[in-house]
Amino acid sequence: MVSKTLLKSHNEKRSRTRSAHTGSKKMSPFFAAIFLLGLCLANAVNFKTVYQWDKFDYVWPTGGDISIGQMKQNFKPEDVDLQYMAVFGERLFLSLRIKSGIPATLVSLPTSGMSTAPPKLAPFPSWDLHKLDKCDTIQRAYGMEVDADGRLWVLDNGSGNCNSKLWIFDLLNNDTTERVHKFPDIIVSYSTAAWMHDIALDKTSDDYLAYITDSFSEHIIVYSRKTDKSWSVETPERKWQYLALSPNRESLYLIGSIGSKELYSVSVPELKNGGGRAAVKFIGEFSRGPFRMLIDNANILYAAFYGQNYISKWNISQPFREQRFHEIEDYGADRPLTFALDTNGTLWMTERSGFYSEKRHKLLKAAVGARSQ
Ligand SMILES: *[C@@H]1O[C@H](CO)[C@@H](O)[C@H](O)[C@H]1NC(C)=O
Ligand SMILES: *[C@@H]1O[C@H](CO)[C@@H](O)[C@H](O)[C@H]1NC(C)=O
Ligand SMILES: *[C@@H]1O[C@H](CO)[C@@H](O)[C@H](O)[C@H]1NC(C)=O
Ligand SMILES: *[C@@H]1O[C@H](CO)[C@@H](O)[C@H](O)[C@H]1NC(C)=O
């Protein structure tokens, strides 16, 4: 299937159309059209549909337990609100916004299936870790990423009395919980407010660091796997919601409050020394406020926007310039999609169309970035 990919902004397309007509008077409209089509297809990214869901369902636990029956009864498929995604090997992981009818905030599914029926959502790593009445379980999963050694890092905001945590699962060792880091009070101001959103992993020569946004405080949180410690780097007068790390691991790109269009960056070395401050730099302004960003290994930053049915891109090696990358079949949902990159340079994306009980979802994939050969 060839997707409706629009590579250039409308303005740019208009000006190119103009020059195609005025610049070459001899070119007939027919050839001009072919010329334009060629330009588009040369750069087109083909998204392939992997699955399509009319309705989500969970892989329910077995047994005749009353609480299982209750959970099934309470489940509202239309309340499934996909937030963040990560992919490793043959599995895809999704974090779901918690509502009363949603029994597990972190699920996995296979990246390909034998049958034509779309897969059910399997609570990850088990139903046991999704009992909301206990603080040592996963409360509200948000940002996630898989590291190069097959570990899934999941940011759990916590809820009510349960503090925010960072979970690390070993996907190559039966999905065992390798680490649960509880962010201490001196880092996260639980007494006032906290909302942990997004995470980006940085593999250094001898460690893995995680950069984390907490949208209620003027800082960036850093966690070191080696020392199992987290620290806070102040960014006076600026709070952050979403982030993406450059492939050379020198710049962290940041979006502030919900709906903010302004893109900033901070120098990664400034984040590494604990307890300091970091200077932020204004990079440019998007057409709309992004709710998700990531950068592939060819330095292309992808951004998706609140209430918009398109994804934009920007080559971070060049001055800021937003270009249209892809349009989805959305009918105006608030956050109509989510995306993730796997280690093979495949961009995985879910998109939602329709409202309420008519909501449908698709999983798509496309090759992006610089691949070997
Ligand atoms: C990436 O490629 C490897 C080797 O071909 C394959 O084993 C792996 O499953 C692929 N990963 C994904 C997410 O498709
Ligand atoms: C995030 O967690 C904090 C406590 O750790 C809680 O006060 C806040 O309500 C949570 N926010 C959301 C959106 O879950
Ligand atoms: C995973 O668990 C199974 C069953 O408990 C066990 O047989 C297997 O050895 C474990 N694999 C690893 C890599 O630990
Ligand atoms: C990004 O920009 C750099 C510098 O202009 C260029 O060399 C590179 O080819 C561009 N990357 C892509 C994927 O277009």
Structure description:
The protein has 373 residues and is mainly β. It has a domain at 49-182. 11% of the residues lie in helices and 38% in strands. The protein has four helices and 24 strands. The protein has helices at 10-22, 29-43, 66-74, 269-272, and strands at 48-53, 82-88, 91-96, 106-110, 122-123, 141-146, 151-156, 165-170, 176-182, 196-203, 208-214, 219-224, 229-234, 242-245, 251-255, 262-267, 280-285, 290-295, 300-305, 310-315, 323-327, 337-341, 346-353, 360-367. The strands form six sheets. Strands 1-24-23-22 form a four-stranded antiparallel sheet, with no helix packed on it. A hairpin with a 4-residue loop joins strand 22 (337-341) and strand 23 (346-353). One 2-acetamido-2-deoxy-beta-D-glucopyranose binds at residues 173-174. One 2-acetamido-2-deoxy-beta-D-glucopyranose binds at residues 298-300, 315, 317-318. Belongs to the major royal jelly protein family. It is found in: Secreted.
Which helices and strands, and how do they pair?
Elements (H helix, E strand, L loop, with lengths): L9 H13 L6 H15 L4 E6 L12 H9 L7 E7 L2 E6 L9 E5 L11 E2 L17 E6 L4 E6 L8 E6 L5 E7 L13 E8 L4 E7 L4 E6 L4 E6 L7 E4 L5 E5 L6 E6 L1 H4 L7 E6 L4 E6 L4 E6 L4 E6 L7 E5 L9 E5 L4 E8 L6 E8 L6
In short:
The protein has helices at residues 10-22, 29-43, 66-74, 269-272, and strands spanning 48-53, 82-88, 91-96, 106-110, 122-123, 141-146, 151-156, 165-170, 176-182, 196-203, 208-214, 219-224, 229-234, 242-245, 251-255, 262-267, 280-285, 290-295, 300-305, 310-315, 323-327, 337-341, 346-353, 360-367. With 373 residues, it is mainly beta.
